[in-house]
Amino acid sequence: MTYLDIPLPRLAVAFALVLVAILVSMRMGLHLTWALLVGAVRGAVQLLAVGYLLVLLFAHQQPASVLGLLAVMLFVAAWTSASRVEHGPGLRVLLPRSLAAIVVGSSVALVPIFVLVLHPSPWFDARYLVPLSGMIVANAMNVVAQVQERIFASTTRDGTQAQIEQLLALGATSRQALGPEVTAAVRAALIPTLNGLLTVGLVALPGMMTGQILSGTAPDHAIRYQIIILYQLVVVAAVSGSMAAYFARRVLFTKWDQLVVRRDG
Amino acid sequence: MGPTRIEARHLSVRLGTRSVLSDVGFSADGGTLSTISGPSGGGKTTLLRALATLVEPSAGDILLDGVTAHALAPRDFRIRVAYVAQLPAMFPGTVKDNVAMGPSLRGVSISDGAVAELLERASLPGAFGQRAAGELSGGERQRVAIARALANQPSVLLLDEPTASLDVESSEHVIGLARDCAAAGLAVVVVCHVVEHLKALGGIPYVCADGSLRA
Q1: Cβ neighbours of residue A136 under 8 Å, at least 6 residues apart?
Q2: Cβ-nearest to B78 among A162, A169, A265
């Protein structure tokens, strides 16, 4: 099976779609012309760059280069996740915790699949390790940011602070006192993954599966990969989300179970 | 075991860069009622919160029966030392759910009869337990909060401005309840700034101002 080649001039035609969006923006006075233009060019450049990088990586793959790329992906994901948290304690505190939550969740999602299901040869085969890790790490990044932002934002509200302190005063542990906020945050962060699980094939056709089919992979094989990815996305969301909640609690309370975010006298 | 004694020794508290309490000494024994008055911002509430171990001292120590609070698990300390905030938060559910909250946090359930008894002790009818906690008036909320604190059977009761926003009748109920608790053997410490209420409370008066405490 072959796939339809897209020459660069025809790729430029697709750029016209962005021009339509820019026209809409100008017409409605959204002031997004520059952002759309820069975003479209930047996205294309980033993808082209990573495309050539992957070609190089696949051709001359070494454990160090593959793992180095994974390390960069994890760090960028942690940085992005931590910097998205507006109500938290700052990047210096959040960055290592976001990184830990993403690394642990991604490891739980990736290691068993590579060891028990795929077992590629060599084990660091970039054709498998890089794209699968990318999807898993990206989901972890979004979940961690959502959980942390929601928990930290909730504990800046007077009503929530009062409830937490009242629970502590009644003998609750910090885990019990923050329980409702943690539950709400992790549930909310899991909703997009859950929606994806329930509507896959009905509403959305995942990019990797579609790409595999377009490039000639038999649909039943492409679907098997996609099923694995779906399950990985579920576990990474659950593990990274709960890790993020755990770290948020550690930041919010002293070792004597005192809430440290209060600002009043 | 003798009567309970709660102490603050050389207690200092900083909130951010601001010194709120500086080298404060305080003690209260079981069976006594102490009042702390003073100007707003003088450190009264912070002292009470520090006694409840809800704020971390920058120096000094809180002791319960001579044992430093840090030697006890926070849960064990706070079960024995109850704290009721000026505007106590009510949890979702009924009054009964609220009163039973403390014991339920450690897996202990208390009977409807015990809840009714606690409510009656707070001058509320036993059937009050079925009311929605979110629909209470200020006075009812304060008394339910005290009943909730007493459900843990504490030795020390810390009340922060319990009468500040209450009408005359509700204030009298709360003052009577504080005095009853002291008579029952608890060490009761009440932060209050209303002169009439301080007189009605009686007990050992302290004044907290500019981060210092004096008798």
Answers
A1: A105, A106, A109, A110, A229, A232, A233, A236
A2: A169
- Chain B residues with CB under 8 Å of a chain A CB are 15-16, 18, 20, 41, 45-46, 52-56, 69-70, 74-75, 78-79, 82-85, 87-89, 91, 101-102, 105-106, 148-149, 152
The pLDDT tens digits for B81-125 are 999 998 899 999 999 999 999 999 999 999 999 999 999 888 888
CA distance to partner chain B, nearest, from residue A242 (Å): 21
ipTM: 0.92
Show me where the domains of chain A are located: 1-60, 62-252
| Tokens found for residue A114 | 């590579």
pTM value is: 0.84
| A260 SS3 class | coil
Q: From the candidates B105, B148, B189, B208, which should be mutated to test the interface with A, based on the most A CB atoms within 10 A?
A: B105
- Would you say A70 and A107 are in contact if contact means Cβ atoms under 8 Å apart? no
User: What are the chain B neighbours of A165 within 8 Å (beta carbons)?
Assistant: 54, 85, 89
**CA-to-CA distance for A170 and A154, rounded, in angstroms?**
21
* Interchain CB contact of A183 with B (< 8 Å): no
- Between chains, do B89 and A166 touch, taking CB under 8 Å as contact? yes
Is pLDDT of A3 > 80?
A: no
Residue B15's closest CA among B34, B41, B35, B39?
B41
Binary contact (B105, A163; C-beta < 8 A): no
Instruction: Write the residue in B74, B91, B101 that is nearest to A257 by C-beta.
Output: B74
In order of A96, A159, B87, B95, the CA distances from B100 in angstroms are 40, 21, 19, 9
